[in-house]
Amino acid sequence: MDFALERFQWRERMAQLQAQRVLVVGDLILDHYVHGRTERTSPEAPVPVVVFEHEYAVAGGAANVARNVADFGAQCTCIGIVGNDSAGEQLRELMNKAGIDCQGLLEIPNRPTTIKTRIISQNQQMLRLDKESVVPLDEHAEKCLLENIAAVLPTCNAVILSDYAKGVLTPRVVRETVTLAQKYEIPLLVDPKGRDYARYRGAFALTPNAREAAEASGQETTTEAGILSAAERLWELTQSEWIVITRGALGVALCAHGKPPYFVPTLAREVFDVTGAGDTFIAFLALGVAAGLEMVNACVLANAAAGIVVGKVGAATVRPEELLAVLSPNSVNRKLVAENDLRELGNRLRRAGKRIVFTNGCFDFLHAGHVALLHEAKRLGDILVVGINTDEAITRLKGAPRPILKQADRERLLSAIEAVDYIVVFGDDTPHKLLQALRPDVLVKGRNYSREQVEGYEIVESYGGQVVLLDTLEAISTRDLIERHGSAKNKRSRH
Fold first, then answer.
1. DSSP for 304-352, written as a single string
2. Hey, what's the torsion of the CAs at 88, 93, 99, 104, to 10 degrees?
3. Which string of b and e fits 131-168 if b means at least 16 CB within 10 Å?
């Protein structure tokens, strides 16, 4: 199972991945987040008082798996159950808004929609309150669910069973769905729950994490030998073609019967929140398999997608351009962020408690002064975002023959600087739109500017941000270097 990521044409595969249709069956959850501030302890009991600030809800569980597929641009049908309640209505509305086909949902009276409410203060989860019923579906509900599955499954390229142990994936539902998938030769992948993996017998692939694999197999999964033993035991129980054990920061162990595990390293840059990473992993593994990728490349794809979402806060999804930036080895563009994505980036960084620093410039003749300024800027916060002008904007602002270095070269050089976390390219004469979207805590420029000369200073200060002017190394400026270079060139030509 050898592969070379450098030689794999991921860009050409994106449209192929988006052309797939995936069926997701499982436990639907409404993830409800309540944010507030904590300043005191209750006089009634030794517990913190959280003062409400804002709340929101997202589709969770199997619905989050479906959301990952749909947000990427592929087709997705999701089948599960909701209650006859406001939470069920909200969940259905969220799924419809995400472009998920929800016609196969069953509404069951007297059974609540599963809700997980998380109370969060100072970016720390204080409490989780669950409202649920885990009673298995009765015979009539099983029959209705299976009819809906049978109506859709033959038209799909892959099937995912997303098991959160809330009673939807009964032994009968699993068994008959697996049988139907085998009949139509459609790969069926399972994100399992519990210890009874025998009920998933016949699935194409299972994706337990290391802890789940250890519990279900009775084998430790902290070593290569242990993973192999655990995988062998799970094969005995399930006869699956693949056991894919996710290992967090250690990446993924891809196991085929009778062969040593193949280890795919993680591609996560920074972990903010692991919520939903397993949902993202199986969604993209299924898309890769559906599109005909070899299993190892499907794992690389899924692992890269999961590495992206753990760099976000909450149950997040992945866009094609984000995935390409991570998967394209010759691309610098793992640090690139689109201008339209700055608002989301700023919001998730703030939710993670990160202090954002921003600076901008042409950087069209990158020199030691730039590098020193960027390293000093990074010390003022946690995340440094650098805005760079397009080639056209630089020519307009500075005149020909600027830029000296073209945009692709500038992106490559800046991305190689460790202090730089994100790069955004903009075509306007000023970074005002970037600042309004990102809302950085600190705006940095060199001390060769006055505060009033810093473009956007009034925007940053309007919401309480700070403008900082840093000393530049030996007063180096791009203009000075260009003029010095031109003067030296003229002297040589006269001789």
1. HHHHHHTTSSSS----HHHHHHHH-TT-STTSB--GGGHHHHHHHHHHT
2. 40
3. ebeeeebeeebbeebbebbeebbeebbbbbbbbbebbb
280 alpha-carbon distance from chain centroid = 8
> Left (φ > 0), alpha (ψ -120 to 50) or beta: where does 202 sit?
left
The type of residue at 82 is: V
Segments making up each domain of the chain, as ranges: 5-39+48-327, 339-486
- For position 315, what pLDDT does the model report? 60
What CA–CA distance (Å, rounded) separates 114 from 129? 11
In the predicted model, what is the mean pLDDT of the chain? 88
Residues 447-494 pLDDT 10s: 888 888 999 999 999 999 999 999 764 444 555 555 554 554 444 444
* Fold of the 5-39+48-327 domain: UDP-N-acetylmuramoyl-L-alanine:D-glutamate ligase (3.40.1190)
CA–CA separation, 427 and 449 (whole Å): 22
Report the alpha-carbon distance of residue 369 to residue 385 in Å, rounded: 17
Helix (H) or strand (E) holding 203: none
Q: Is 41 a residue whose pLDDT tops 60? A: yes
Give tens-digit pLDDT for 419-449: 999 999 999 999 999 999 999 999 999 888 8
**Which overall architecture, per CATH, does domain 339-486 show?**
3-Layer(aba) Sandwich (3.40)
Amino acid identity for residue 190 in this structure: V
Give the distance from CA 173 to its chain's centroid: 30
Q: Catalytic site residues?
A: 279
CA end-to-end span of the chain, whole Å? 62
Give residue for tokens 């992948």: 189
Q: pLDDT tens digits for 340-392?
A: 888 888 987 887 789 999 999 988 877 788 888 999 999 999 999 999 999 89
Here the tokens at position 463 are: 């919401």
Residue 495 pLDDT exceeds 60: no
**5-39+48-327 and 339-486 in the same fold:** no
- The region, left, alpha or beta by phi > 0 then psi within -120 to 50, assigned to residue 198 is alpha
pLDDT at 4: 39
